[in-house]
Amino acid sequence: METSIRTTSGDDGMVTVTVLGEVDFSNADEVAQALHDAITDWSPQVLLIDLADATFIDSTGLGALIEGYRTASAQGADFRVVNPSDTFRRVLTVTGLSDFFGLIETEIDTERTQATGA
Predict the structure, then answer these.
(1) What is the helix (H) or strand (E) element at residue 97, kind and residue range?
(2) Which of 48, 46, 51 is nearest to 83 (CA)?
(3) Rounded to whole angstroms, how far apart are CA atoms 48 and 98?
(4) Is-contact 34 5, C-beta < 8 A?
(5) Cα 41 to Cα 21: distance, rounded to the nearest angstrom
(6) 94-98 long-range Cβ contacts below 8 angstroms, 24+ apart
(7) In 28, 39, 60, 69, which residue has its Cα 20 to 30 A from 88's Cα atom?
(8) CA-to-CA distance for 115 and 110, rounded, in angstroms?
(9) Whole-angstrom distance, CA of residue 23 vs CA of residue 100
(10) Per-residue model confidence as pLDDT tens for the chain (118 residues)
(11) For 25-54, b where at least 16 C-beta lie within 10 A, e where not — what string?
């Protein structure tokens, strides 16, 4: 159960936390801490959580995202999950967290929808 977390800041007031690998009971605290640190250290207007390379999430991982959301909200920052896999998107939709996390459609999703008419 390996996870790597990268935090980057842009000139546009956005900070991106990229999660690679699994987010579960073994590392949910690490993910929550990375989100907390990104918010408190950089005071972004928008915090993006990029899940493009995340492979698994369980309830404790969802809890880490919720904790990050609460920290961002307390600091007045927007909290948005971006680039979830289809599996992640289903989990976030079923749990009702999709809207809660401001789930953003990626260009690939938009292009696919336009191409298929879905």
Answers:
(1) helix 97-100
(2) 51
(3) 14
(4) yes
(5) 24
(6) 95/62, 97/62, 97/65, 97/66
(7) 39
(8) 9
(9) 19
(10) 456 999 999 989 899 999 999 999 999 999 999 999 999 999 999 999 999 999 999 999 999 999 999 999 999 999 999 999 888 888 999 999 998 898 865 544 444 434 444 4
(11) eebbeebbebbbebbeeeebebbbbbbeeb
Question: Which of helix, strand or coil describes residue 42?
Answer: helix
Which residue do the tokens 């493009």 mark?
52
DSSP labels, 43-59: --SEEEEE-TTEEEE-H
